[in-house]
Structures are given as C-alpha cells and as structure tokens.
From TrEMBL:
Keywords: GTP-binding, Magnesium, Membrane, Metal-binding, Nucleotide-binding, Transmembrane, Transmembrane helix. Mg(2+) binds at residues 94, 115. GTP binds at residues 87-94, 137, 191-194. It comes from Oryzias melastigma (Marine medaka). The chain crosses the membrane at residues 37-57. InterPro entries: Arf-like_GTPase, P-loop_NTPase, Small_GTPase_ARF/SAR. GO terms for molecular function: GTP binding; GTPase activity; metal ion binding. The keyword Amino-acid biosynthesis does not apply. This is ADP-ribosylation factor-like protein 10. Pfam families: Arf (PF00025).
Amino acid sequence: MCVQSARGSGSRQPSVLRVPALVAASLMVLLRHISTALSAAVAALGSALFMALSFLYTRRVWSTHAEYCPISEEEDERGKRQVLVLGLDGAGKSSMLRRLTSGDAAARTGRCRPTRGFNFISLNIPAFQLDFLEVGGGEDLRRYWLDYLRKTHVLVFVVDSSDRPRLPLAKAELHRLLEEGPQLPVVVLGNKQDKADAVSGAELHEALALHSVAADRKLFLLTSQLDSGAVRKSCQDLDTIQNLLLQLL
Ligand SMILES: Nc1nc2c(ncn2[C@@H]2O[C@H](COP(=O)(O)OP(=O)(O)OP(=O)(O)O)[C@@H](O)[C@H]2O)c(=O)[nH]1
Ligand SMILES: [Mg+2]
C-alpha cells in the first residue's frame, strides 16, 4: 500500500510484482548504507593517513631543526658581537655603558641608578651589530653572571679602584669568570681613578692577581674615570677602550 501510494500510481499492481519491488527498494537502501559506510571508511583512512604523514613530517622537520640548531643559531648570531660588562655593584658598569654608547654628551652625565637586572644596549656600527650587556653586580645577581658567558665575545670586568676593602672579592669573582670562560678575551677596567684613595694600575694588577692568569689569555688592564670631571692623565680615554674592544671583537 505504502509503495503504491508513494509512486502515485492509479492502477493496482498484482501482489506478485510487489515482492520484487520491495526487495529492490531494500537493496537500494542497503547499497546506499554500504556506500555511506565505505565513504566514511575512506574518509577515516584518509584522515588517519594525513595525520600520520603530518606527524612524520613534523618529526622530520623538528629533528632536522634540532640537528642543525647550533648552525642556525650561529647563522642568527652572524654579524653580532656581544660585550659582557660585569663587576661588583657600584664599580661603574652602567656609567661605562652610558659613556660608550650615548652619542649625546648631555646624556652621558648624571648618576646611574643601581642595575637591578641587566642593561642591554645595541649599536649598529659598520662592521657588525655590537651588543653591550651589563648584568647588575649586587650579591643576588652575581650568581647569574656565568649564564651569560657563553654568547659573549669579550668580557669587560669593571673594578672600583677606590673600593679597597672589596678588592679581594672583586678578585675572587673575576677568577671565577676566568675559570668558566678560559678562551674569552678579558678587559679589566680599573675605574674611579679620580678618587683620592684609588689604587694605581700596578696595584690593581697585584690585588687582582693578574700575574696568575694563563699567558695565552688575551687579558688587558686599563684604568678609567667614567664619571664627569677632569680626566687624570694616567687614565685611558674612551677612544682607547673603544679601539681595544673593536680589535678584540
Ligand atoms: N668618582 C667617580 N664615580 C664614578 C665613576 N664611575 C661611576 N661612578 C659613580 O659610581 C656610582 C655607581 O656607578 P654605576 O655605573 O651605577 O655602577 P654599576 O657597576 O653599574 O653598579 P650596579 O648596577 O649596582 O651593579 C654612580 O654614582 C656613578 O656616578 C668614576 O669614574 N668616578
Ligand atoms: Mg649598573
């Protein structure tokens, strides 16, 4: 009855003919289900294949990247040079950075505040990009100094020449760094030479036990006065410091 009315046929079909029609309709429905199931299976298989390929592809890219990571890091770092500026708190690291990197004379004067983390200044000079990184010299920050040695091309270790009681501490910290970076060129800057109680370059050499440093190490001792005021004749000027750094980089 149902089949007939759906076809809208006015003539009544014999019941003998109705059976094959029902079978055919059932077959059609079955075929449709099978085709839907097959499509779903193909889609699922395709997705699984896609996911597997993506996973493999990602792994390959990741592992390739990991394998060549040091090379790409080097490529990234090509054209960059880093000067790491360390030394006890108050030695004059920020003052040095400011004097070396400010083009504006007015900006070079005035007192620096203690560095609570680090100072980073990047200069674009014709040969390369020159990055200066100062890590604060406070006791709580000194433990992080070693972490910054790896990417550094030159270490500048600033010492307050007038801080006689802390020269042994400055020496200990300097030698800790020297041990950790055996190939690193080092410039020791005996700062605050303008102060009446400042030790001389020769005294500083002795106090910091620089004679015990390996002969093949590139090690330089300069004296400076980085605060504003009359420059003492015994001090190296900024140009000398700049030129030395450029030679070492
Ligand atoms: N008299 C004199 N004072 C200086 C000289 N260089 C720096 N100062 C002063 O010393 C103080 C400390 O200088 P900073 O440059 O902040 O010292 P720092 O090494 O950066 O210290 P932290 O950031 O705390 O590790 C500041 O008041 C400076 O003005 C110098 O050559 N002579
Ligand atoms: Mg500072």
